[in-house]
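EI: anyone free to look at a 175-residue chain?
SC: sure, send it
EI:
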Amino acid sequence: MELRYGREAVVGTLVIIAITIFVAGTMWLSGRALGRRHVVKVEFKNATGLKRASPVTVSGVQVGRVEEIDLKQPGKVIVSLSLRPDIEPRIDASAQIASVTFVGDYVVEFDPGSSAEPLPPGQVVLGAMKSGIGDRAGLLADRADSLMLGLQEFANKAARLLRPPRTRPRPDKTV
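SC: here you go
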């Protein structure tokens, strides 16, 4: 009988380990933080393109993720950032939402600040939108469009100058 209980204990232990790995993997894939992290709240006027689990970078290195996006009122969006414990936000911290690709991937570029005074718990950092690759591509498309319109107008004027004048045949006055 001891052998049967030994097998049941091994199977039970393996099931518990599998469930733990499943839960931890699900939390990791969904962007939830495992362990102690700094949570910083940032206020944006517009959080276009940002989503839960979007990366947070400092000097181009990913140091956290967006945990929550909450619309308080039009023009006021509070975004909760989860940062590694070694990133200490200061009173002069700032954040910007930046586009990193043409297809709409966005990142929060966080500057922890350089002040000697740490950011008090619960204080909200002001954030802004940074013009990124998508904005520059839009400006370039606008310029190309205006260039094409100018070329079209030039071609139309040239065609009018090269076209012979129209002469209408006189109607016969036979009555």
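EI: The first strand starts at residue 38 and ends at 44.
SC: 👍
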